[in-house]
Hints:
It is globular and about 30 Å long. It has one domain. The protein is built from four helices and no strands. 14% of the residues are buried. The chain is mostly helical.
Amino acid sequence: xxxxxxxxxxxxxAGIQSSLEGIMRGKPPLVLFTTLARDPRLFQKFxxxxxxxxxxxxxxxxxxxxxxxxxx
Length: 72
């Protein structure tokens, strides 16, 4: 399967790194989480339980945002 959105690579921003450490408890982060880490706002909203509550997408980009939400 080809990757549509490449995952973020370490080092992650401090807030994301601390969240990943808390979630994964010493294990390597899941690709899903590192892919979400490419957008800090989406990463935070995903773990708050509202990834698409207020989309940050243009009209043209909404189809891509809904595709990402479907994949997640």
